[in-house]
Design a protein that fits this description.
9-stranded mixed β-sheet
Length: 264
């Protein structure tokens, strides 16, 4: 059998020494490709699997490169001592990692077999058998749930949410991984108390959720749209104020009984 560490995938960034997207100090590997087209996406260069040209600081840059699992792990393993001291490890992000399931699975397997903790930030938008094949190598699933209303979800992301919610239930029932629910809080989309309450109630019903993360909308990716020659569809919408985020946090905690934090 061929060495799974030679499986190739397409990434657009590796971020070291992150304290987000999982516990402790982490190395985040950003995979290219996504099934959604969220209006607020801060990594629009992640959406297309294809290599792209993007203007960055006035210069043309090719976004995306093909790498083997072994090549990525050489970078990940450089910071093993930091993972050990902080309880950190490898996180897969994107895009949507499940768009490259063989590569994602192999990366998580390589980390686990090297004694490095694993996490994946994902919408769960794939056939469940794909997710099921990854779970044995995953310590912590950071699962995005953006809205409970299917029509509004499709309007703002390009796809309905039924499959994602169905998979959330299956992931929780599997008991194979820690599960946290992440909610991007987006003005005009889901920033009302009622909308956050609905997601928090659902998180409680899943039964195995450790924590809810409320991720306030920001505009830090806006310049990337200009660099890609694309329209930024959020226009002049501003981030939610701190007072509103605290109100939403209190509501989520009250109805779910789960710890809730602002930020990832």
């Amino acid at each position: 059998m061929a060495d799974y560490r030679q499986i190739k995938g397409r990434i657009f960034d590796i971020q070291k020494f992150s304290i987000h997207d999982g516990d402790g100090i982490r190395t985040i590997v950003f995979l290219k490709g996504c099934v959604l087209r969220c209006r607020w996406c801060c990594n629009p260069e992640s959406q297309e699997y294809a290599l792209q040209s993007m203007t960055v600081a006035g210069e043309e840059k090719i976004i995306g490169r093909d790498v083997t699992v072994e090549e990525v792990m050489r970078t990940v393993e450089q910071d093993r001592s930091y993972y050990y001291r902080s309880g950190g490890g490898l996180t897969l992000s994107g895009g949507e990692s499940l768009c490259q399931p063989d590569f994602a699975r192999a990366l998580l397997r390589a980390a686990k077999e090297s004694g490095i903790g694993t996490a994946m930030e994902s919408m769960g938008c794939a056939p469940y058998d794909v997710i099921e094949s990854i779970l044995p190598y995953l310590d912590h699933y950071l699962l995005d749930i953006k809205h409970m209303d299917a029509a509004k979800h499709k309007e703002y992301t390009g796809r309905s949410n039924e499959l994602m919610l169905e998979n959330a239930g299956k992931i929780a029932r599997s008991g194979q991984t820690r599960l946290s629910i992440r909610i991007p809080v987006i003005p005009t989309f889901n920033d009302s108390v009622g909308e956050i309450r609905e997601i928090a109630v659902y998180a409680k019903e899943l039964g195995r959720v450790e924590k809810i993360h409320l991720l306030p909308y920001h505009r830090l990716g806006r310049d990337k749209y200009d660099g890609l020659g694309r329209e930024y569809r959020m226009g002049d919408v501003l981030p939610p104020p701190a007072e509103q985020m605290q109100e939403l946090k209190a509501e989520a905690e009250a109805v779910s009984g789960l710890p809730c934090q602002i930020g990832g």
